[in-house]
Amino acid sequence: MVSFTEELVDVGGTKVHTLKGGSGEPLLLLHGANGNSGWLKFVDALAEKYTVYYPSHPGYGKSERPDWLETIPDMACFYTWYLETLGLEGVRAIGFSMGGWIASEIAAMCKHSFSKLMLVDAVGIKPNDSEIADLFIISPAQVLDLVYHDPSQAPEYQALYGTEPTPEQTMMAESNREMAVRLCWKPYMYDPRLPSLLRRVKIPTRMVWGKNDKIVPLECGELYNKAINGSDLVVIDNCGHSPQVEKPDEFIKASLDFLA
What we know:
The protein is of the alpha/beta class and 260 residues long.
């Protein structure tokens, strides 16, 4: 395993908990609404080629939240500040689910922030013929049932979910869920302006989608692919909302081939 450190990055007085490890050019990972899953197999594989920065969003995990941060565009603005603080302008970036929405807003907002962009089962665009699952009206256990197409094929499933969470982990999960509601509730999981704004994105962009995603349907990946000029869409068969966990080998290959 690649060694990594935990750092608190001060962004305008807000401390952002960041996992950092690996070597090579920088790569930013932006997690989804459930929070930072930690240094898993896919992160380790990416860190063999790149210096990975994997922050917990403001209001998530051990990161602080500034009072003004209320929306996904706010979060995107904050991350441009984060990148400037670290001197990381023009980095490669991968955004997962809600993190993909954040990343797409950054790319549309500031063309100098990223050099390459991957969006993985990203929310942010409203589908026309299907629906994004409403995760805020069901229990965490029901959400978990929707995330994976076949949990038995996810090598780290038991490590992630096989034991009863501690009281501290439960409190953190509830806090993360509260922050997700704050950011994504109205309108639910999309920005009506985003398809138009994405026309500004000129960097190489790849969407990676689980074909059997029960949370963010494949239609959303197709709409992102349509909105971003010159992008491509990689669909992973027999896979749900988190290909980086459920099908890590296929995800890692799709990532490294594109990021090189």
